[in-house]
Amino acid sequence: MFRFLPWKMIVRKAARNYGIADPSLWLARIRQFSQQSEVQEPIELLRAGIHFHARGLINTKAIQHNLDWVWPYWVERQFDPADESFVPRAFSFSHINLTHRNWTAVGLPELSLYPIVDPRGLVTPLHDGWSIDFWLTDPDGQQLIPSRTLDDDVDQSLKTDGRLAVQTNLWKSELQLRQRVEVVVEDRPGVPLKSESPAQPVLKITIDAASPAGGSLAMAIRPYNPEGVQFVDSVEALPDATGWKVNDTTQVITDRKANRLLTSHYDEGDVLYQINPAAEADQSAPPQDSATSTTMRCDQGMATAASVYDFEGDSMQLVVRVPLAAELQVQGHPQKFHPEVTWPEVMADAATLTVPDSRIQRLYDGALKTLVLLSVDDIVPGPYTYRRFWFRDACLMMNPLLSVGFVDRCRRMLNEFPSRQQHNGYFRSQEGEWDSNGQVLWILNRFRKLTHSPLTSELYGTLDKAVAWIDRKRVPADAKKRHAGLLPAGFSAEHLGPNDFYYWDDFWAEAGLRAASEIYRDAGDDAKATKASATADEIRDSIERSLQDLPTSRTQGGIPASPYRRMDAGAIGSLVADYPLQLTPPNDPRIQATIEALLQKHFHRGGFMQDMIHSGINAYLTLDIAQTLLRNGDERWRDLVDAVADLASPTGQWPEAIHPRTLGGCMGDGQHGWAAGEWVMMIRNCFVREEPDRLVIGSGLYREWFDQDTDLAFGPTLTAWGRVSVRIVQPASNPRLVIDGHWHREKPPIDVRIPGFEALQNVNDGTSIALKRQSADEFRVDERPHVPSHKDR
Hints:
Keywords: Hydrolase
Low-confidence stretches: 280-291
CATH architecture of the domain at 104-334: Distorted Sandwich
InterPro entries: 6-hairpin_glycosidase_sf, 6hp_glycosidase-like_sf
Protein name: Glucoamylase hydrolase
GO molecular function: hydrolase activity
């Protein structure tokens, strides 16, 4: 009934009564900047945006008026006028983290909970929850506050041996904090698991504090997280001063009794000043003595608390546990939690990498763990901001997961797809995006080919409706428009620009239809195969007509984002035709022209600078370009890979977009699963790369890896022809290549194209192949200028 009300008239009259400009006029003007589409803004993104900026509005009220509080790392930097991260706030609608969106999740391979740790060790145990911090004070009142620690005084790393843990070491003068954060399985907090005991996940934090003259260690409950304020309405001390219950629900348990329990509410200020009153010397009122306070409620939701542990020696250790069983009931699927599955068990079948470059090795190992961590119940592209399902991210993360051997994991995810398909055939992530059907069809075919197994009847049953949806959705081919025969204008969640007729959607549709045709044909359904292939041909013809209709001055020989755009950063989406879809051959002139345009105008610090929305450097899109350069034999791929490695956080993670000056995250999740997936796929393709008619071995191996006799190896990796492992023994003194292939049917043609060595064609597997270095007159360095990185500036 409400939709029949004259809302536009009501809003216009209300605005006029209050002297406000008619919002419908402004909205109409705004929409003139995009192509007319059936969905202007997906409700899912509007909902997420409202939630995001609601917190930003709360931040405007809580933070700038209380800068004497201890705030998370991003606030301490972004609100400091002497810091490069400083952002003026005068006309900002909301105050959000735009400069240091970095965090790292810890967890278990079969647990869909993701406690996160920020760059200074701030621990957020629950999804979008409050946090735990640790402060060290010496007898003279000198304090080590992690979020205020200088970059040179912190060392953070991801530990991937056995368990998944974040290690943070901080120091100030002679004070030192060493912190390890991980998720473990216990009977009950602090009691080792017994075989007959009910297992529960527990967040475990181990703190080692050091101060030559002794001092005090404080465990502090903080009403915020890396996005900003997150309410703490109440804190209550546990019996025997062994921790706190926060918001009447979650326990924070320590392994020893505190010497003092301190609490404070918003009007009293930060509990910090009860630990070290000298820090508040410039305030007129003395701090309230709450040394015996065991409970606190705060109307503003800004309650703070601290357990203080005094020590007289030069060091002490504290172990803190947060039970996560209740969180699993709310955020995860308890029936899908398998505590008996360990990290070593899950990683046992994954493709392993062996190279002498410790950085490349560390980033690959960490990226594998990120992919596994984010693919438990659903595949999600991030542990926090992006902890939700999109078909696009799921398919593009499944591709590397599948390629490195996580077949059962991918099968489990794919089996959920039929229930997500709408009755009309649409695989909807959010209304107004048209790329998902093509992506699902493409990954289904990849799964079928790499595993050499047919689709289940449920998955096969999704094909007809998915194919028909693509065909129905297209604009009529006889329309007298540049977009005739293409998919309609849609919202670009890939942030290619305003609503438009994106070639990105069309290339995915074409690839999906060709994938469906392969599936049909192998299943013996030739009629459906022929129809799907014919529709794919029609879309390709429509793309070609559209591109040919564009003036060269607009395209510069490349492929813009849409028929109605010039060559800008949005053209990155059109490169999907080459990688990963391989709809175009290597060295396709349009693809090459598109890359050159992007390299010349849209790169910063060696990486692709996405001007649309992100306004940051994108690791995953940079790697997509590197993949095309690698396929083309263009050695500039190496510059891009090195730049992405340089841009990784100390824990080996990449946010969705990276601030061009602070090099912290400026957009999206601080741990981007898609970026991790592209890193894994990049390293895999450096060793084993698939072309439609052959395998290419070693085209991305670094020349300097052959300067020492450390073996190089990768595998086993799944390909369309079978499982392959590659090893190069004695790379410096007597390089020999061994290819171990387990083929589905016949062996494919195999080419060897290792930089610095003579190319080999159609080699055999299972034998030791001598590699011959190129002679001086054969050796030719690519004369195209390398891509400048921040090291060149």
